[in-house]
Automatic annotation (TrEMBL):
<comment type="subunit">
    <text>Homodimer.</text>
</comment>
<dbReference type="InterPro" id="IPR036291">
    <property type="entry name" value="NAD(P)-bd_dom_sf"/>
</dbReference>
<protein>
    <recommendedName>
        <fullName>UDP-glucose 4-epimerase</fullName>
        <ecNumber>5.1.3.2</ecNumber>
    </recommendedName>
</protein>
<dbReference type="Pfam" id="PF16363">
    <property type="entry name" value="GDP_Man_Dehyd"/>
</dbReference>
<feature type="domain" description="NAD(P)-binding">
    <location>
        <begin position="5"/>
        <end position="322"/>
    </location>
</feature>
<comment type="pathway">
    <text>Carbohydrate metabolism; galactose metabolism.</text>
</comment>
<dbReference type="InterPro" id="IPR005886">
    <property type="entry name" value="UDP_G4E"/>
</dbReference>
<keyword id="KW-0119">Carbohydrate metabolism</keyword>
<dbReference type="GO" id="GO:0003978">
    <property type="term" value="F:UDP-glucose 4-epimerase activity"/>
</dbReference>
<keyword id="KW-0413">Isomerase</keyword>
<keyword id="KW-0520">NAD</keyword>
<dbReference type="InterPro" id="IPR016040">
    <property type="entry name" value="NAD(P)-bd_dom"/>
</dbReference>
<comment type="similarity">
    <text>Belongs to the NAD(P)-dependent epimerase/dehydratase family.</text>
</comment>
Amino acid sequence: MPTILVTGGAGYIGSHTYIQMIEAGFTPIIFDNFCNSKLSVIERISAITSHPPLLYQGDIRNRAQLDEVFSQHHIDGVIHFAGLKAVGESVAKPIDYYQNNVAGTLTLIQAMQAAHVKKLIFSSSATVYGDPISVPIREDFPTLSATNPYGQSKLMIERMLQDLAHSDPEWSITLLRYFNPIGAHPSGTMGEDPQGIPNNLTPYITQVAVGRRDQVSIFGDDYPTPDGTGVRDYIHVMDLADGHVAALTHKLNEAGVHIYNLGTGQGYSVMQVIRAFEQACGHTIDYQMCARREGDIAQCWSDPKKAARELHWQASRDIKQMAIDGWRWQSNNPEGYPN
Ligand code: NAD
Ligand code: WQD
């Protein structure tokens, strides 16, 4: 089975994908600089898979570190998760985002070219659609309206990779546009562990539910949605992980550029998500209505039919399961991963 380099493999989505890749028989190698993850995730991975993962502690901007991995292993392809992802921080520190995400990807591509590895799966985001013209969002919708440096960095990388595939038809490039990943591994030993105040909704909810924070701030209740709060396409991180295995299985050996939405195709409002987590944890979760957050859109959900057709993949875990698994992780690990 193919050996796959997984940049950012210690992170939230990468670590869950690692587990599903092992299940499916692939040989993943983690490459991560741990700028947004903790070394203890490696022990959790080892406990689930019964083997310590192949691990390189390195930075995708460091060519020598990448060259070393490519020289030590016969690598068939790369899944590229490594990057910075906080939208607000990207507005405050745009150069860090372009440096890490865009320049880092360029260095990775150059190292791949030097090693004659021309198969790549890239973590893109629904953010590339900006404020969509309509919902559900198809892959052929325009991608010109990203409103923050994080989104711009994803768009730039998508464009660079498309130009690369155009210039050299040997490349196989799969762009996976994730919607809103939430939930955790069913073991309750792995999950999302944001550093500091969470930017995203569900870690905030679970931190309130477990007593780490007082109340959830709901950013706007005057959107043109059924209950006035923002609507998103939440997808279980295990379904997302399975989507990567499907992309590896069906697209890695097919040259060209392949683009897929990874979402459920169904939208839930902030209020509905809070209610789902209340059910999961068995008590009420305190919240307050606040002003809209700058840059937010009213609603966003995917049309996931292309992935179903071509990757033979579709999400199977519902919002109830996402809340149950997300809560199991948070309640077993109130402070996240140990250092
Ligand atoms: P994460 O921060 O948990 O994981 C990213 C990992 O990459 C971390 O372990 C971090 O230490 C590592 N990393 C960052 N910069 C690096 C560098 N220069 N060299 C080596 N390692 C580096 O984030 P995640 O939620 O798992 O997201 C993974 C990818 O998916 C990111 O590219 C993100 O932009 C994208 N994405 C995430 C979401 C989401 O909501 N979580 C949605 C759409 C797309
Ligand atoms: C979801 C909903 C908020 C926090 C972001 C990135 C996107 C992708 C996923 C990486 C919205 C509301 C949130 C809170 C709230 N990441 N909310 N109170 O903004 O859809 O997407 O993460 O690629 O690029 O933009 O996700 O979880 O921040 O917000 O009311 O404390 O919850 O307004 O309606 P978002 P989110």
